[in-house]
Design goal:
Elements lengths: L4 E4 L3 E4 L4 E4 L2 E4 L2 H11 L5 H8 L9 H18 L6 E4 L3 E4 L3 E3 H53 L10 E7 L2 E6 L6 H9 L12 E7 L2 E7 L1
Parallel strand pairs: 9-10
Antiparallel strand pairs: 1-2, 1-7, 2-3, 3-4, 5-6, 8-9, 10-11
Helix pairs in contact: 1-2
Organism: Salmonella enterica (Salmonella choleraesuis)
GO molecular function: DNA binding
GO biological process, one term: regulation of DNA-templated transcription
């Protein structure tokens, strides 16, 4: 048989090559006879004669009734030491002995997990492809927006003189060391602009610029501050 490592009750590792039982950080070494007894359980053997043949006679040895029962008691003690129940080894009167908990080769369990991953593989690849595609669209859109902003800035700074502030605003006067401008079409006076300036709820600071461009809109006063 190819299997050498098993799980007992889905929690205790039985290594038939190293002849050990382990559970977490706990490891105990078992005898060769105990190892073959557990392998007999794995083979589905439970009759006393079959177990004796596999554990002893198959290897050219001989055994007495007392050795058979001593082996069973020894195995139960090991179960108790590693976290299993001694009662997991069930004696069948006048028949033999059997194991009441599952014994499974770890290789089969691993194969099932791998198969499950293979089933989910295409779906996972589709999700990854979707994420890459969505990320690519985001990068393209971000790049387009940045290009549009750069073009707008370039247009503002490279526009002809007719698009400069002087084409839309005219100098109105000085107030509190600010140079104030208004739109050419607006008939507003300096005193009206000063009143609107003093009515602002958000303070304007001189260090941000001394040129104030005033735009009057219905129910709204707009000031553009420039250096």
């Amino acid at each position: 048989m190819n299997e050498s490592i098993f799980l007992l009750d889905k929690r205790v590792v039985f290594d038939s090559t190293k002849m050990t039982l382990s559970h977490g950080n706990e490891i105990i070494r078992i005898s060769e006879a105990e190892t073959h007894l557990l392998l007999a359980f794995w083979h589905g053997l439970y009759k006393k004669e079959d177990i004796i043949h596999l554990v002893w006679e198959n290897r050219g040895g001989c055994v007495s009734e007392s050795s058979y029962y001593k082996l069973i008691n020894q195995m139960r003690n090991d179960f108790s030491s590693i976290g299993l129940q001694p009662s997991d080894i069930v004696t069948r009167p006048r028949v033999g002995v059997s194991l009441s908990v599952a014994i499974e080769p770890i290789k089969k369990i691993t194969s099932l997990k791998v198969s499950d991953e293979n089933v989910k593989g295409p779906s996972t690849r589709e999700k990854i492809f979707y994420k890459i595609k969505r990320h690519s669209v985001f990068v393209v859109l971000t790049g387009a927006i940045l290009l549009a902003l750069l073009y707008g800035v370039f247009t503002i700074y490279k526009a002809p003189v007719r698009n400069s502030p002087d084409s839309f605003f005219t100098y109105l006067g000085e107030y509190n060391d600010y140079a104030i401008y208004k739109t050419k079409e607006d008939k507003v006076t300096l005193s009206e602009v000063v009143f609107a300036f003093n009515s602002l709820k958000i303070k304007i600071y001189r260090q941000n610029g001394r040129h104030l461009y005033y735009i009057r809109e219905p129910n709204m006063n707009i000031f553009l501050q420039c250096l």
